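Hi support team,

I'm opening this ticket because the web form for multi-chain structure prediction keeps timing out on my end. I have pasted the exact lines I submitted so you can reproduce it. The total is 572 residues across two entries, so I didn't expect it to be a heavy job. Is there a limit I'm missing, or should I split the entries? Thanks in advance, R.K.
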Amino acid sequence: MPVKTPIYLDNNATTPVDRRVLEDMLPYLTEHFGNAASRNHSFGWKAEEAVAIARDQVAALIGAEGKDIVWTSGATESDNLAIKGVAEMYAEKGDHIITCTTEHKAVIDTCKYLETQGRKVTWLDPDKYGRISPSQVEAAITERTILITIMTANNEIGTIHPIAEIGRVAKSRGVIFHTDATQAAGKIPIDVQEMGVDLLSFSGHKIYGPKGVGALYVRRRGPRVRLACQMHGGGHERSMRSGTLNVPGIVGFGAAAELCRLEMAEESKRLTGLRDRLQREIERRLEHTSLNGHPTERLPNTLNMSFAYVEGEALMMKMRDIAVSSGSACTSASLEPSFVLRAIGVRDVLAHSSIRFSLGRFTTADEIDYAAEQVARAVSELRELSPLYEMEQEGIELGKTASQDGAGAAISLTVVNDDNDAPCCGPGCCGKPLETETSRNESG
Amino acid sequence: MPYSDKVIDHFTNPRNVGSMDKNSSRVGTGIVGAPECGDVLKLQIEVDDDGTIVDAKFKTFGCGSAIAASSLATEWLQGRNVEQAAELKNTAIARELSLPPVKIHCSVLAEDAVKAAIADWKQKNDHE
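Hello R.K., no limit was hit. The queue was backed up. Here is the completed structure from your submission:
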């Protein structure tokens, strides 16, 4: 069956709104437009009733109660509220936060901001699969620790952290535990009670709901977690987040959460099957590929692979009817290759060669087969163009120095960039003036 | 990122892809860039006895703009005198391909590769 292009395999970036979700939302844009905070007329009651239902639906996805949910504009805001809110509220108790280097920028930059405000942050390094161990967390806890924030699953590589175990550590040491579950919610089972999570961020648009709506789970007992509000105003959301509620968005988030909860068991199996099929079909056609992330403890929809000797942005350009993401520097604003891949020890050259495929509810087997073919074709074509692949084929080892012994030759490359106005490849890469030089050490 | 039509054209139909015999005295080879930075350009020229570039080939590991810049450079080199070729400026490549600021380094690398190839040829042929 011919597939309709372009094919969307970037569901970790965002997802389309499910039609069933949209249906539920529509009346709340027109007919039931009331302000959920209007306590004295039916327009307000109708809106408030819808918000209450959505609260329960969203809470049910993570094993919580409706009352535990604070609505926000998205997971970035939830992360900000959780981390800054705890830092401020518990400032007298301590000033130390534990997190890890592969968190989403919403957590990393919030923690960095707090560092500028005098807080101390411990940045844990994950293992080669991207996992933080409970013992690492435990070892980092001090008397001044007020918050542990470790994401449930990573957005780039899909690796799932041992959240329940970290939760136990946090509980035993009396430290508040926040997890950014933006990528995990709706894809894998989450239970804040079983996992010992005190604060949990997630959002609507990653789970086939609308953009612009998110939630923060805030534990109410055992312990009761308090937060200093970051958005002052009318005292909405237990005074933790003021602002008129985005009722249609909230209704959509609720409906989306409900669908995910009901369909998760089956959908997760289907996605795992398709994801592994994509990897298998690519590996069947191509050599020199590698998987980034954990082989098994990984989101069912996420596949991050490196294709040696080709650059990620060029690869994406070559397969223009497939929408994916890359860890290549060329695709980032900072001109740095993915910090997540770097943190798990993927060499920069392979980070530049990485592609993230993230499957979704509407991904079909035909699309996967088509994508695998396109990837193989694009990689093969670009390898024909690649001097690195040519060297590999000729048995030339590419190294930083020319002094290599043994068979084959070593080629040393140094880059020239004498035009100071033009960036070479950004900070931390070739910041120094370089020289063009090709030295060969040929030994047969 | 939107690409200019010329970048897409050179990327989709790259000119003069290939390799020449790097040991030939008629061939100059320039390899610039670094794999860790995501760009490696290999550019080769074949020069006749009159100092005219009779052929140019490239292979590039890099983004679409790097590939397009290399392809364009090899096209420009064909038939030019080595001395003229040495005057090729990255700005001309950047202008021709309408490269955005963030991609200017691709044109710098192309210029560097051309210069490196000429230097290699000169060295082989005892030119100063």
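A quick check on our side: Chain B has a mean pLDDT of 94. Let us know if the file doesn't open in your viewer.
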